[in-house]
Write a structure and sequence with these properties.
5-stranded mixed β-sheet, Immunoglobulin-like, 5-stranded antiparallel β-sheet, mainly beta
């Protein structure tokens, strides 16, 4: 969930549901990439839908609080239990997901060298 303000988007999911803290760190040859556009895309009701875009900070990071993607409703099928991570308009082939159990997850995306999840 996000709120629109005069200063841009503010992520407020953790005020409404239990979440996991997801940090996506974007680098280029190991150096933080500032203002990288990060979009999470998710298939829901058979359609791929993006979340609003976020931009990496001076450390190359975007921090998000994601609620669980475990749906108990067959009427929303087909649905994916994760988000695809897109950076600067390209699919990184990495997925972000949440159990809503309060864990912290670091996902590193190096645009020059490939990607990894920690």
């Amino acid at each position: 969930m996000v709120a629109h303000t005069d200063q841009g988007l503010i992520e407020v999911t953790n005020h409404y549901v239990t979440t996991d803290q997801i940090t996506i760190r974007v680098t280029d040859s190991g150096e933080p990439l500032v203002n990288a556009k990060v979009i999470l895309k998710h298939t829901f009701l058979g359609q791929t839908r993006p979340l609003p875009e976020f931009y990496s900070d001076t450390n190359g990071s975007v921090e998000l609080s994601l609620g669980s993607l475990a749906y108990n409703n067959s009427k929303i099928e087909p649905v994916e239990p994760y988000y695809w991570i897109w950076v600067n308009g390209k699919n990184t082939d990495l997925k972000a997901s949440s159990t809503g159990s309060g864990k912290s997850v670091l996902i590193e995306v190096d645009l020059a060298e490939g990607s990894q999840r920690n």
